[in-house]
Design goal:
single chain, 67 residues, mainly alpha, 22% helix, elongated
Length: 67
């Protein structure tokens, strides 16, 4: 990964580690480990939407898988 990608990944993991235990995956009574997808949103050069978009919902989904 690039230095920028590493920095972003570390920031996401650092914020995740600050969450209380009740907000993280746990080991169930039967020994199975819960899991959760972990993602971070990075916004670079973000500008507010013009007023004409104020009444509309804009959703963009990006999926990145890093092996």
């Amino acid at each position: 990964m690039s230095d920028e990608a590493d920095t972003i990944a570390l920031a996401v993991l650092e914020e995740f580690s600050k969450l209380p235990a009740k907000r993280k995956p746990a080991v169930r009574d039967n020994g199975l480990h819960e899991w959760v997808p972990l993602s971070g949103i990075v916004a670079k050069g973000v500008h507010p939407l013009p007023p004409t978009y104020a009444s509309k919902v804009v959703l963009t989904v990006f999926e990145v898988q890093i092996p």
